[in-house]
Structure formats: C-alpha cells, structure tokens
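help with this:

***
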Amino acid sequence: MRVHFAASMIGGFWGGYTIFNHMDIFGNAQTGNLIKMVLEMCQGDFTFVGFMLLSFLIYCGGNVFYVLVRRRVKISMKIVSLICSSAAVILIGAIPFVRSDFIACYPIVFVAPIQWNAFKIAGGNSSSTIFSSNNVRQAAILTTNFVLTKDRKTGGRAAFYWLTLLSFHIGVALSCLTSLLVGVHSIWFCFVPIALTAGAYYLYQNQKFRVAGLVSGK
C-alpha cells in the first residue's frame, strides 16, 4: 500500500503539472480531453482537435506498450513504469522544445496509462494512481457501509481509498507550488515522488524476500 500511495503522488504531480503549465490539459486521462476535442471540432478549431487526437493515439500507445512489454520482458512492470516516468521527466526537463504547451503533455500522456496498469492493485483493492473518480466512488461507498455495519475490514478499505486520494493531491500540491516558483522547470521535482515510490518498492521487495526466507527456513 505504501508503494501505491507513493505512486499516486506521481499521478497527482502529472495532473497538476499539465493543468497548471500547459493549457489546462489533464494529461493523465482522456475523458475531459475527448470532450474538449469534440467541442473544439464543433467550433472549428482544428489545430486543437489535431493535438487532442494525437494525444488520444499516444494514450492508446501507452497501453499497447504496457501489454507488449509485460508479455516479453520479465522485469516487474512497476520498475518499467518508474523507468518510463523518469525518462519522461528528463525528456520534458532537458529539451526546451519539448516544454512547449502541446508537446510537453505527450510524454506524460504516454506514461500515465503505463503507471495506471502497473500500479492498479494494492492490498486486494483495485485503484487508479493517475485519476480520482473511482477512488472517490469507492471511498464514499465503503465509508457509508462502514458507518452502517461497523465492519472493520470495510473501514480499512475505506481508509485505503481516502489515503490514495490524499496522496494523489499531495502530488498535485507539490506540482503547483513548485510551478509557482520555477514554472515549467518544476517538472524536475517529479523525481521526489518517483524516488519515494522506488524506495517503497525496494522495501516491499526486501520484506517479501525476508518472509520467503523465514518460510523456507533459510
């Protein structure tokens, strides 16, 4: 769960960064972007329509990449996701051309679904680390059921979704505060939640190895 919460901070950072710095685009998901594409199509702004269509295709490409890599590479997809997220930060941060409004969103659009798929389950709970709609739904439903039944397991699951939401918006706050200070260069601060996620994953794997050693008697 600590790995999941840390990854949610990455998702929050992505969302805050693109909305704050790049034309109010939410790079993590496609619902709002596809709505904007149709609205701009109706108004005749085909430049924006082209940008959103390419964004949609790149987002699909991120999912295709996840499937192909998962089938052909033995390394954990969580590690692959962290590598891709780090590459996106370096690409946006190091190349001035990539920091333009449209292009800066594309690396994030690509890596967001990779992260979503790689970190979609934690503690038996299905939860997105890159957007909040289902997490809000689960938190509200589980909290209501807990109040009605006083079931501790249900209360624990409700707490998980509330903490995921909190973690996500800590990432949003980090992106917004750093954007106020240094603008588009705030992208480098995404390495903070990336490092936290990598550290949490390392500790989790060490714990698994220790438990496996105790079970095997080694």
Summary: The chain has one domain: 2-216. The two ends are 27 Å apart (CA to CA). Residues 152-182 form the longest helix (31 residues).
